[in-house]
């Protein structure tokens, strides 16, 4: 089985972060590739960025689909997801979509933790609304850090915000809402004793399931 993860931004740091986490879930006879945009924004932060990222995602999947069994959009706004599904013949899932569905299987209310500032709150409410789960969204907590600055040094900051999501906002599941958080999900699930999802493991799991079911969304 071959799975292609497309990062719609041009950040090599984020692409490496996604790949390093994704390869943990690559079993025998499987191949997971991660490709990024060569030009364009280093982060998908505005509507303009999303249009640019969506265009790259659509064109890249159209060009590459015959080489792969499934695809993943490696960005938490899932740019271009619906359009890609219209034009390719392999199952394609989004990181946000996958993390949200998994969160809803693990708890009744979830929170997002975002890298940006308060301006991101409405964006994440829109993502929850898009997938029909806004009534289960407890909160959106923002770290106010740059996407490429997310690393192990920020773990305590993330943990503090997870505690706020749980004890102040009433969440029993937390979603880390950026591909830059790749790798933190399992670590923080173990340390915080509640489900924490970063979207990488979840999207790979759903992609594999759809291939096994021979099902194209």
List keywords for this structure.
217 residues, alpha/beta, Rossmann fold, 4-stranded parallel sheet, 43% helix, globular
Count helical runs: 8
Q: Largest beta sheet, briefly?
A: 4 strands, parallel
**CATH hierarchy, class of the largest domain:** Alpha Beta
Order of helix and strand elements from N to C terminus: EHEHEHEHEHEHEHEH
Strand content: 15-25%
Q: What's the total number of strands?
A: 8
Tell me the count of domains: 2
Molecular structure report:
With 217 residues, the chain is α/β, with parallel strands linked by helices. The chain folds into two domains: 2-94 and 201-212, Rossmann fold (3-Layer(aba) Sandwich), CATH 3.40.50.12500; 97-198, Rossmann fold (3-Layer(aba) Sandwich), CATH 3.40.50. It has eight helices and eight strands, in the order βαβαβαβαβαβαβαβα. It has helices at residues 12-22, 47-64, 81-87, 95-106, 121-130, 155-167, 184-192, 200-212, and strands at 2-7, 31-36, 70-73, 92-94, 110-114, 137-142, 173-176, 196-197. It has a four-stranded parallel sheet, sandwiched between helices. A four-stranded parallel sheet has the order 6-5-7-8, with helices on both faces. Helix 2 runs parallel beside helix 3 (81-87) and helix 4 (95-106) crosses helix 8 (200-212). The two termini are 18 Å apart. 47% of the residues are buried.
């Amino acid at each position: 089985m071959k799975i292609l993860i497309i990062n719609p931004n041009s950040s090599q740091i984020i692409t490496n972060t996604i790949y390093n986490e994704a390869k943990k879930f690559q079993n025998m006879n499987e191949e997971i590739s991660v490709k990024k945009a060569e030009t364009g924004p280093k982060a998908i932060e505005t509507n303009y960025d999303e249009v640019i990222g969506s265009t790259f995602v659509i064109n890249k999947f159209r060009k590459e689909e015959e080489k792969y069994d499934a695809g993943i959009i490696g960005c938490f706004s899932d740019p271009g997801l619906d359009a890609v599904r219209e034009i390719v013949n392999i199952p394609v899932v989004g990181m946000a979509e996958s993390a949200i569905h998994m969160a809803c299987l693990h708890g009744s209310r979830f929170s997002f933790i975002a890298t940006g500032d308060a301006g991101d709150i409405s964006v994440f409410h829109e993502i929850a609304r898009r997938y029909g789960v806004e009534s289960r969204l407890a909160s959106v907590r923002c770290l106010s850090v740059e996407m490429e600055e997310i690393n192990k040094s920020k773990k305590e900051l993330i943990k503090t915000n997870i505690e706020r999501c749980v004890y102040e906002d009433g969440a029993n599941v937390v979603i880390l809402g950026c591909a830059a958080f790749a790798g933190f999900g399992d670590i923080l699930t173990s340390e915080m004793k509640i489900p924490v999802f970063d979207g990488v493991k979840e999207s790979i799991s759903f992609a594999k399931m759809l291939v096994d079911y021979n099902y194209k969304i």
